[in-house]
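Researcher: Good morning. I'm working through a list of sequences from a screen, and I'd like to move beyond sequence-only analysis. For each chain I'm collecting a predicted structure so we can compare shapes side by side. This is the next one on the list. No need for commentary yet; just the structure.
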Amino acid sequence: IKEYKTEKLYHIFKKLEFKSLIQKLGLDEIAFQNKKNVRAGEQRSIFDSIYDNDSDIDDSNGTDNGNDNGNDNGNGNAAGNAIDNAVGNATEATTSSSADAITDATTGNARNAADANYKSDEFSTEIFKNILHINSINDLLTLKERIFSCSEIALFPIMEGTRKKGELTGKLVALAVSWKEKNEDNDRHENGGRHENSDRLENSSGNKNSYLSSAYIRITDDTYEEHFIEEFKGIFENETIKKWGHNIKNFLIYLICKGINMQGLGFDSMIAAYILNPSRETYKVSELAAEYLNKEITDVEDILGRGRNKVSYKDIEYTDLAVAAVNYSQAIFKLKDILEKKIRENEQEVLYYEIELPLIEVLASMEYHGFRVNEDELKIFSIELDGRIEELKKEIYGLAGEEFNINSTKQLGAILFDKLGLPVIKKTKTGYSTDAEVLEQLAPMHKIVSNILEYRQLMKLKSTYIDGLISVINKKTGKIHSSFNQTVVVTGRISSTEPNLQNIPIKLEMGRKIRKVFVPSSEDYILVDADYSQIELRVLAHISGDENFINAFRNNEDIHTSTAAKVFGITVNEVTPMMRSKAKAINFGIIYGIGEFSLAKDLGVSRKQAKMYIDGYLDKYPGIRKYMKDIVEDGKTRGYVSTLFNRRRYLPELNSKNFNIRSFGQRVAMNAPVQGTAADIIKIAMVKVYNNLKKRKMKSILFHTSSCPS
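Model: Good morning. Structure tokens for this chain:
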């Protein structure tokens, strides 16, 4: 193909009516406008124009041509690096000897040219010219052979669609793959190849005899997706090929849906970044690349847009999406060594490699299997709630003497304070406050208030936990497939969304009824609920080393009754239910660094009385008092506090001059090691149980909630 000047190619393509291809490759401009980057008098091949470093990607670099080329001649499939396919199909539409000559030339050098590798220290749109664009079955087979010879690959899937409305997974649009290849042949530049221009990539062992390659696999339709799954199943299930990703859990779920259980998960940059700094607002690849690699790369979300401005992947320029995706996979590959080094420096290897990383597979399995609910029971319950809500509305209107919008703060305030004359507890910028705290104080004064409180609770119950659950039931599985998040809660706890299965209410009788709609997957299964008994208090006993607290657990005493006896100076047999309730509030309040003001509010006592309770508690448990003092000082000195498994919580607030900010930091310093260690222990248990179930090939399914629905 190097025998043909770009101007000749322009005339041939024009004759074939490849208008879109001409424009996308910039042949018209190269041939007739004599661009500055075209050196005078030089004969340039089509691949010179595509791959030259001075080319403007928006004007002269190849892009996907599946739609445009198809419109132009009905047979074309691709452009850019897959130009051999485009020109090859063109021969079916013409008997031109020139076109035949192009086809013959293409079969050799085009593939070599498309094999160009991305320079490992570049992050820019220039990457497009060096991507292996995988558009055919033959491309997949060739790529598979190359990856099978590798030990590590970085993956960045692009998924379209969300997990909302009960969907298990989105649709795979494309997959960017980056891998490190050994430079076994220093003469790869022969036959049009460009490997000699690729920078060496130094790995963790100091071996520079390798370079970074990248491919962009575009999933054009369901048939091609089937071929992709068939060809790459062996790669995904090969444990010796380590897979690196970013928030790779979602891709694991996609693969499970396709009958593939990924093996060899070796690194997740999002989880690693979370371990290093759990207080980050986001963990986007683009932000991590800017911070750790000092490279600016385009955020995939910026290409798609957000909210109402969000567009479909099919409407995005192929070039832009390919560049962004491969930039991401390249960044993931480069981030791995850097983040791993920092994890080692922080002595967080156990936390990352034995707890958080294995947990990804556990959570993916949980999301895939989901939790079955009895939809019929939910619908019946919804009708019951509607009936009770209507009854409450009539009672409220009767007590108010008129109908009004109960959901309107302004109208409700006018009824309670202006018409009924109830005392004003609190005001906001817009008028009377009618929040839950205010209503609870007013409840003993008028029956309408207690009715309003119940009305609000039932409305919340119906919208969030009845109608909300019904809306996310997967119609195919009859289950709710909640999303479990590892990087949301700074203490290390797992959170869940869509829906939040960890927050199913239990205080109201109707709330407890909701839990009964969660049922086994089939008649062959039963629900088994296993929970740690007062795990955070046990962790506090261990961390503080307080003998009195430890002995209470060792002797299998009721910790709240034991605490009440010590605080109130009485025997265990003399402790009343009210005393135990207060001791319970103190026990858990201490974990969260509660102060006298908050405790007084919780117990309904004076601040003086609350202070006496706290002082009495700490006098009886001196080890806890010492722990609270020492952990705050330690946090000030080191800048962070940590769990028993070295999960860190950075606390610059401890050195703030602002009293409120500093007080907040002190409370967090006391709480984070306790709550975080408890979270770590639960995660370890989840990983061990999951691995044992899998090892024994049991049908049992692990599921995690803060309190198992049963």
